[in-house]
Each structure stands twice: as C-alpha cells, then as structure tokens.
Specification:
- The chain has 212 residues and is an alpha/beta fold.
- The protein has helices at residues 23-36, 51-61, 69-82, 84-92, 103-113, 118-125, 141-148, 158-168, 186-206, and strands spanning 12-16, 41-45, 96-100, 133-138, 177-181.
- A 5-stranded parallel beta sheet has the order 2-3-1-4-5, with helices on both faces.
- Helix 5 packs antiparallel against helix 6.
- It is globular.
- The protein binds 2'-deoxyguanosine-5'-monophosphate and sodium ion (2 copies).
- 2'-deoxyguanosine-5'-monophosphate binds next to helix 3 and helix 5.
C-alpha cells in the first residue's frame, strides 16, 4: 500500500504496432473502458502533431520537408521529452496515462525504417519515464497492407514496414512487452487488453513503485 497520505499512482500504458495495426483504435477503446470503470484516464499520442515540434514532424511525415536521419530521430525524441512533465504529473496524481506510440516506435522506425544504429536511437530516448506495460498489437506487414492499403505517409510502404516489424522484435522478450494477436476481431482484442490493463492498474496502485 502507499505511504499514509500519498495518492496511489496511476499506470503508464503504451500501445505499439505497425501503421494500420489497429493500435490507435485499441488505445482509444481502452481509455473509454477504464473511464467507464471509474478510473481517471489521460490519453496521449506520439508524435503529437500539434505545437511547433509536432508541425515539423507532421510535415516530415507527409514528405513536405526532409531532415537528415539523425535530426529526424531527435525531432521525434524531443516530442517525447517535451511531454515528460505532463506524464509524470498525471501519473503522480493517480491518473492512468495511455499513450498511442512511445520510444519503442523510435527504435522500430528510426532504426528499422531509417537504418540508424539501434543503440544510438535508444540513447536519445534514454531516461524517459518507463511505461508499466506495452501492448504490442501484432499484425504482420502483409496483413496490415491488405487491410486498406497503406496511405501516402513517409513510412507507409510494405518493404519499410517489414523492417519496422523486425526492429520491434528487439523488445519481444522484455517483461513489460505484451504482444496481442492483432488479427482477432476488435472486440476480443479490446476485451483481452482491458483485462490485462486492469491488472496493471491495480498492481501499480498497490505497489509503491515509483515512476522511473
Ligand atoms: P501515426 O501513429 O499514424 O500518427 O503515425 C506516426 C508515424 O511516425 C508512424 O509511421 C511512426 C512514425 N514514428 C513515430 N515515432 C517515431 C520515431 O521516433 N522515429 C521515426 N523515424 N518515426 C517515428
Ligand atoms: Na501512420
Ligand atoms: Na494511428
């Protein structure tokens, strides 16, 4: 249990997956379900396309502007650093934060898609608040491509998504990594995620585990 007078902290839950894996819908579904069950929830996403950094990232993803690979990674990473206080404040006040993408996308895309060294990518994000759990919505690049076809954004091409998929596998044995079969129907995925998320929310609230 928490110290006397201290509020149990909220959980920090991240969704990851390829473009068109369904992770955005699943993160919204989870936020809604936890709210229905009476939890305080804050939903965020990376990259955040608003604000000065977000506008650069948005233009980069739409291929309106280019950056060198390392600058590109630092832009996405800076967007994550800019949100640290907000995440920490929410979690410390007992709110569960649900994020659509985080630093794992940094490794998967900047190393997989851009070809940067993996350890270099990790370093730029090293020290970011660690999530309590990551739901990896596992859909193969071929399946994601079949869904509606990729859009016109920078990384939405089958051969790129294949490299992103293998970079994601770097995390597959981590204890916080929960791969979810993303080919099941969306209601069963949502139900499976919700059960696991509730376990995480209660164990975090019961533990004095600090935000790291
Ligand atoms: P969406 O999640 O649909 O808003 O798309 C965001 C795109 O940005 C997606 O293709 C993944 C990519 N992305 C997210 N984080 C990073 C990062 O740190 N580095 C790079 N290179 N791409 C990223
Ligand atoms: Na996308
Ligand atoms: Na999305």
């Amino acid at each position: 249990a928490s110290c006397v007078g201290a509020m149990p902290r909220g959980a920090f839950i991240v969704f990851e997956g390829l473009d068109r894996s369904g992770k955005s819908s699943q993160s919204q579904r989870l936020a809604a379900s936890l709210k229905d069950k009476g939890h305080d929830v804050k939903a965020i996403r990376f990259p955040n396309r608003e604000g000065p950094l977000g506008q650069l990232i948005d233009a980069f993803l739409r291929k309106d502007i280019d950056f060198t690979k390392r600058t590109c990674h630092h832009l996405f990473s800076s967007d994550r650093w800019e949100k640290q206080c907000e995440i920490q404040a929410a979690v410390l006040s007992g709110t569960t934060v649900i994020s659509d993408r985080y630093a794992f996308s940094g490794v998967a895309y900047s190393s997989g898609a851009e070809g940067l060294p993996l350890e270099w990518c990790k370093n730029a994000d090293s020290g970011l608040i660690a999530p309590d759990t990551v739901f990896y919505i596992d859909v193969s690049p071929e399946e994601a491509n079949r869904r509606k076809g990729y859009g016109a954004e920078r990384y939405e091409k089958l051969e790129i998504q294949r490299r992103v998929y293998s970079s994601y596998m770097h995390f597959s044995t981590q204890p916080y990594w929960h791969a979810i079969d993303g080919t099941k129907d969306i209601d069963s995925i949502a139900a499976e995620v919700c059960v696991k998320a509730e376990q995480v929310v209660s164990s975090v609230a019961a533990s004095d585990a600090p935000v790291t």
